Structure formats: structure tokens, C-alpha cells
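Mods, move this if it's the wrong board.
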Amino acid sequence: QLPLVESGGGLVQPGGSLRLSCAASGFTLDYYAIGWFRQAPGKEREGVSCISSSGGGTDYADSVKGRFTVSRDYAKNTVDLQMNSLKPEDTAVYYCAAIRGVAAYYCSKSGPYNYWGQGTQVTVSS
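Not the wrong board. C-alpha cells:
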């Protein structure tokens, strides 16, 4: 099992920002496409964003376009999700996922992905 760990979640007021990180211990994420997903209570898991292994390909759900930005930090071996202008409907557990062997400029925000983290809670509330 690939050890992916998400961090950066928390409680934030509407309109605020959070930055989530997806980290891997003991191996490099350089060759993996990474997806970010979220699941709110009582709802199906939703693909939020993804980034290709090269960093040159990204995709976003319509609900987060213009507010969320995904990026790779090769030096830190992380993939980050910058979330701005947060809304109460962004409240969910956020997961990162990884897959290797796809084209360097390709990613899919719907999957499939082979490896998953345990998730980090994001709560947007006043």
C-alpha cells in the first residue's frame, strides 16, 4: 500500500482559505498522477481536481474552478491543493489518490486511482 498522507484540513469561515498537502513517505511522487477527491456526509465521493505527473496537465470540477489550484512541489515531494473563497458546501473529507503509468501530461479527476490517503477534514462554517 502506498503511504499517502493528507494534511492541512481544519475549520475555516466562509470566504477563507486552506492549503491541503498530499505527501508520500519513502518514495517519490514524481511519476504519479495525483487526484483530489472529497466526500461530504450522505453524498457520493466527488472528484475535485487532478494533476499529471509532469505538472503540465490539470483539471478541476466545475464547482471549484477559479477557487482551487492544484500544484506539485517536487522538492518537498508533495502535491498541494490551494483552496480559496471557501463555501459551506466545500465541507467534506478530502482525499488524495495516486496512479502511476499514465501519460505524463494526463490526469483524470474521476479516476481510476490505485492508492489513497486516509483523508483530512475540511469544515467551512461561521
